[in-house]
Amino acid sequence: MLSAVRELSAFFGDVSGTSAPCPLLYQVMTDLMMESTLVSPPTRLWVPKHVMITRPAADLPHTAEIIRRCESAGVDDIRVMPGNALTGLKGASERETYAKAKNTLAVVVAPPSTLKPQPIPPSADWRVDLAKGCPAHCQYCYLAGSLAGPPVTRVYANIDDVLAGIRTHAGRGAITSGTVERGHEGTTFEMSCYTDPLGIENVTGSLAAAISRVGSGEFGDDVQLRFTTKFDDVGELVTLDHQRRTRVRFSVNAADVANRFEGGTARMPARLAALRSMALAGYRVGLTIAPIMPVPGWREQYGSLLDDVATALADIPDLDLTAEIITHRFTPSSKEVLLGWYPNTKLEMDEASRSQKRSKFGGVKYVYPKQTMAEMRAWFTAELERRLPAARLLYWT
Fold first, then answer.
1. Cα 321 vs. chain centroid, distance in angstroms?
2. How many structural domains is the chain composed of?
3. CA-to-CA distance for 19 and 6, rounded, in angstroms?
């Protein structure tokens, strides 16, 4: 916001031929500042019914902040476990276990294997995990099959150790750092590989801590955080001194996909309002259009989505907007888990109508046929340029 005001000041000064404030400049600056502080209340807040704190995490400073936030949110079942084990999550059925786990926040210590940043192409140079697990109920959940055990959300209490990887890996990487196409982003660190960090922020504070510390320059000037969210609780984030070192991308989708398959998340209008609020607060922003599905009328539905984004971001000064487009895919293991969680789902997971895509390790993913992929890619590439010319497409997959 401050950089936008400075640019406006310089512009209007040049127009008026003087450095003195003019009435039009004053009105524009006032309107922008007032709008940036008017953030709509969140429409979807996750409040766990149970909080389990492992013994090693109990005395860490960040745990005290998590407890404070949970108590403020109204959680009255906060327990310190005798050791590292999380007990009592198993139910009589898979659905019951799922329900218990989705209502539980576990405060744990990240193990050494988690603390070492890992490459995460094509999104960023490295990933850093503030948490693992997500409170949402997306019927296509890409975490299904990739995280062992009940789907409890685990937040890491040793946040200093988690963020230390930013310092050790700044200036390294092959996705943005040192590249021609994205080198201006600096060394990038993805925070939403295994969670939606904004979805749990009201009871953790981990996201605000990371943004503030990176914004302060603690890890250098040439690093950037990134995260994707389906939530809209941005009231605290817009007040942070982020120094434009964080890019927040909002996960968006066609109405039929979002309304049918994205349970427990903010609805699309609320996400777009939050997108506008973050852009007005000076954040770099983005769209994660995912997972794309060729539902009936997909061109019209995704076209309306892009038009709604354009409206939400109209007249944003100094807008830095990216887009990442990901088609739907599933694996045999994720399908099995998802059908256990959502036995009545209408999500299409028909292997016979898909093409197989094999990883270098021999794993199988089921993706859309080549012709469907080509048709969707051509449409999205053209329509993104036409309807959202400010958006920079980072990748399609």
1. 15
2. 2
3. 12
Provide the CATH number for the domain around residue 322.
3.80.30.30
Integer Cα distance of 61 and 55 in angstroms: 13
CB atoms within 10 A of CB 285: 25
CB atoms within 10 A of CB 21: 13
**Domain range enclosing 309:** 230-328+368-397
Q: Is 95 part of a structural domain of the chain?
A: no
For residue 106, give the nearest of 136, 134, 142, 72 by alpha carbon: 134
Q: What are phi and psi of 125, to 5 degrees?
A: -65, -45
DSSP-assigned letter for residue 330: B
- In percent, how much of the chain has pLDDT > 90? 82
Q: What is the pLDDT of residues 265-279, one digit of tens each?
A: 999 999 999 999 999
User: Is 326 in contact with 291 (CB distance < 8 Å)?
Assistant: yes
Burial tier of 263 (Cβ tally within 10 Å: 0-12, 13-18, 19+): exposed
The DSSP bridge pattern shows strands 321-327 and 284-292 to be: parallel
| Residue 68 falls inside a structural domain | no
Identity at 105, one-letter amino acid code: L
Give the N- to C-terminal CA distance of the chain in Å, as an integer. 33
Burial class (CB in 10 A: 0-12, 13-18, 19+), 241: exposed
Q: 52 lies in a domain?
A: no
Tell me whether residue 93 is in a domain. Answer: no
pLDDT for res 275: 98
